[in-house]
Amino acid sequence: MNRLYLTAAVAALALGTQAQAESLAIALKTEPNSIDPHFNYSAVNIAPLSNIYDPLVESDAVKKPIPALATSWTALDDLRWEIKLRQGVTFHDGSPLTPRDVVYSWCRAPLIENSPSSYATFVNKMASIEIVDDSTLIFTTKEPNPLMWSDLSQIFIISAAKMGAEETVTFGAEGCTGMGEVPQSAVFSDLGYAMGTGPYKVTEFNRGEALRLEAYDGFWGDKPDYDDVTIRTISSDGPRVAALLAGDVQLIESPPIQDIERIKGEGFKTTETKSARVIYLQLRQDMTETPPMMEAEGNPLHDQRVRQAISYAINRQGIVDRIMGGYAEAAGELLAPPMFGTTGRAVDPYDPEKAKALLAEAGYGDGFKVTLGAPNDRYVNDERVAQAIAQMLTQVGITTDVDATTASQFFSRRNKLDFGMFMAGWGSSSGDTSSPLNAMVATANKDIGAGGWNYGRYSNPVVDEKIAKALVTVDDAEREKLLQEAETIALDEFGILPLHYELTVWAMAPEVHYEPRSDQRTAAYLVEKAE
Amino acid sequence: MLVYLIRRLGQSLLVVVVMATLVFLGVYAIGNPVDILVAPDAGAAEIARVTERLGLDKPMWQQFLTFAGNALQGDLGDSFVYGRPALEIILERMPATLELTFVALVLSTGLGVSLGLVAGLWPESVAGRTIMAGSILGFSLPSFWQGMLLIMVFSVMLGWLPAGGRGDTVEIFGGLRVSFLTWDGLVHMILPAINLTIFKMSLVIRLARATTREVVPQDYVKFARAKGVSRLRITFVHVLKNMMIPVVTIVGLELGSMIAFAVVTETVFSWPGMGKLLIDSINLLDRPLIVAYLMMTVLIIVTINLVVDVIYTLLDPRVRLAGTSA
Predict the structure, then answer these.
(1) Are A45 and A170 contained in the same domain?
(2) Can you tell me the distance from the alpha carbon of A126 to that of A170, in angstroms, rounded to the nearest whole number?
């Protein structure tokens, strides 16, 4: 039976390949909610739209900057950056890319009215953008910005002329001028507006069905391997795998871990890489009274020894091997080394005896009761990981229940500080440790935008100072040192407990190849024909 | 008849109002959409901006009043996720669902009634028994699992049919996109339509068989037979017409739920209908879209019930008479 099945699948596949040598179909997990590149700042939109539009700077598979529409970006001083624009680039209608288009795009991004999550965050960091000549722009930032390249990579460039801008567009301290009537996202239902400088043109976009692309002959970079691309969305895991096995699509993102063996067994391939996402535990440690969803005398988590005991009680390698099926890596830091700002610190050992001793030392030898909050549909096998942790903690005397709910519920409750202990994940969009440190380790302070996700309320002024300094230090060596020091102190005090780094997996038909990316992006222009 | 209709309309309206309130409160309780919408690395300023824009900073009663006021004017709000009117997005997705459900409806009624009739006329025969056994299987299988099984057999193993998606479409009536007029579209529709059909068909089979068994020993059937009316005419005129009455009622009611909740089938076959939209919206806490969707569902079901009542009167003159005198 199995053999027959395999033969049929291979035969179907062979036929399929012959019939459509130059076309490719991809299935994503989530659909973009607009093809307006400035509508929604979310990885879900960026991945498919990166086929159509280009930013000034792009990042490669391991989150290192590579030139895109800018050939260079050089710091003139702490605040001013000189951007050299690539020459000979054309939009899909054949019109040349000019500095005006860059200024217009940066001006338009924060002006999208109904944006669920706006690009204003990035644009607001800029004080002005000046056009020096046809190939040079000067970006001036409000604060020194060491991650300038990352910010430059966020805004996709669109055509000012197509959008109806005036001849001169400026971006100064008082805002933008010459914008004309700014078209809102709704106009993108006319696909003519979805015009960038990227490797593909849009030929069709039907919500819920597919985004169809056609290679753009005038593209400035290497021509992609496939001329016609269909990007579909299949949100359920089972059907997505079935579409691959049936030959409907040649590449899928995030196949469920438990299906990977089967996918491989039927002659398909997978590639995977460590993602920039770490799964971690946060422990409510600022208060001395008992935190929510916990039964104990006072707040045991306030005591560093208890936090250390929790870390030592968790068998991270066991979780990786048994629950994650090997598709994860035990974590000792907030971002997988060797990314920027990491130290290569060792993973906390699994030592239940030591954990019990530490608990006794802290006066909790008889243990206490706690509820571990977790989402059940957000991260890979999240609920099962939480269950395993609960069992491990219970073994050292901390009786732990799991309260796992759907992501929307979980995040709302977590953000209201409803949990004394919870498990969640953080993906670093900038590819360095400044992102997790500033969000989850720095003392929560709305005014300076620090600690927005510090729901464990860890706080150490020394760490805060190092993080704040790192955020405005342009010198890479010095910045890395500051980030490393801040992370080391926070982890030495068990302010946050890293658990594992998720691996991102792609599954594909034998005739295609996809180089895995740490930013989890699935883009058509990166799909190659297998040799 | 008019009085009856007006009374029914009044009841329907009440249902809609009660439903709107319940839905709004329910959706409100799920969680805070801002936590899902805003990218984690956006700052506090961005969170504040979105909260204010969506009106989530206002107290709940005020949000409800705004919603109710707008709803009365036919405005169910802009989707949080798409930034466009929720109703517009749902209507965009509706043709795909309608197309699929109507195909399933025709299949399930056609097949269900014929098979049920056979099983009812010859209950002890092998065919009758097989049909009944099959129908038990049909409505016992969970839809999701059954869909996956169809995909595994017909798409993965045999490679005959695509595993999902809608395929090619053509535009009719200036903009309405349908797939049943293209070969590729039809091929894509087969599996989801079958998946949606199996359960309903089993239901219809059982119902048709039971009513056939009830109708056959009736006096008028016996009389017709005694009078020497042909067997064919007895089956298709006397039996079929009378057994259709309960079938129409049930199929009508089921059509409503089929349109509104083709969710599972649409998810398995990534069919771009409204049901899939609902699931996505719930995951993203897109409140206006969820509310608009459920409101529309209520409207659809209420309307179908009305239509069923009218068809009923056409099939059974006694209902018509009773209706007039009331």
Answers:
(1) yes
(2) 13
Spell A144-180 as b/e; 16+ CB within 10 A means b.
Answer: ebbbbbbbbbbbbbbbbbbbebeeebbbeeeebebbe
Res A28 pLDDT > 80: yes
Q: Quick one: which of A95, A123, A103 has its CA closest to A169?
A: A103
Per-residue pLDDT, A15: 44
Residue A247 sits at the chain B interface (C-beta within 8 Å): yes
Judge if A428 and A322 occupy the same domain.
yes
Q: What is the pLDDT of residue B320?
A: 56
Provide the 10 A C-beta neighbour count for residue B26: 12
pLDDT of residue B216: 79
ipTM over 0.85: no
pTM beyond 0.95: the answer is no
For residue A359, the distance in angstroms to the closest alpha carbon of chain B comes to 34
Q: Which domain holds residue A356?
A: 274-503
Q: How far is B257 from chain A (nearest CA, A)?
A: 21
Is B20 part of any domain? no
Nearest to A235 among B49, B84, B280 (CB): B280
Distance (Å, whole) CA A37 – CA A205: 14
Domain presence at residue B60: no
Is B139 inside a domain boundary?
yes
CATH number at residue A357: 3.10.105.10
Max CA separation in chain A (angstroms): 75
Give CA–CA dist B75/B70, Å, rounded.
5
The domain tally of chain A equals: 2
Residues A316 and A402 in one domain: yes
The answer, for A406 touching chain B at a CB cutoff of 8 Å, is yes
Residues A166, A284, single domain; the answer is no
Residue bearing the bigger pLDDT, A378 or A522 = A522
Q: Taking all residues of chain A, what is their mean pLDDT, rounded to a whole number?
A: 90
CATH number for the domain harbouring residue B233? 1.10.3720.10
* Mean pLDDT, residues A470-482: 91
CB contact under 8 A, B96 and A8: no
Q: Average pLDDT, stretch B227-255?
A: 80
Residues of A in contact with B92 (CB under 8 A): 207
H or E element, residue B17:
helix B2-30
Better-scored residue on pLDDT, B71 or A223: A223
Enumerate the residues of chain B whose CB falls inside 8 A of the CB of residue A431: none
Q: Is residue A5 part of a domain?
A: no
Res. B240 pLDDT band, cuts 50 70 90: confident
Predicted local confidence at residue A18, as pLDDT: 41
Which residues in chain A have Cβ-Cβ distances shorter than 8 Å to B84? 114, 185-186
What's the domain range around B273? Answer: 88-284
